[in-house]
Amino acid sequence: MSEKKETFVIFGNPVAHSKSPQMHNAGFENIDYDGVYKKHHLEDGNTIKEVFLENNYEGANITVPHKEFAYENADEVRGLANEIKAVNTYINEDGKVIAYNTDAPGFLYAIESFGEIKKVLLLGAGGTAKAISLALQQSDIDVTVLNRSEGKLSFFKEHNIKSSTWENFVPEEYDLIVNSTSAGLKDEYLPCPEEILNQVLKTACCAFDCVYGKITPFLAKAKENGLKIKDGEDMLLYQGVLAFEYFTKANTDESTIEVMRKALKDN
Question: Catalytic site residues?
Answer without folding.
Answer: 67
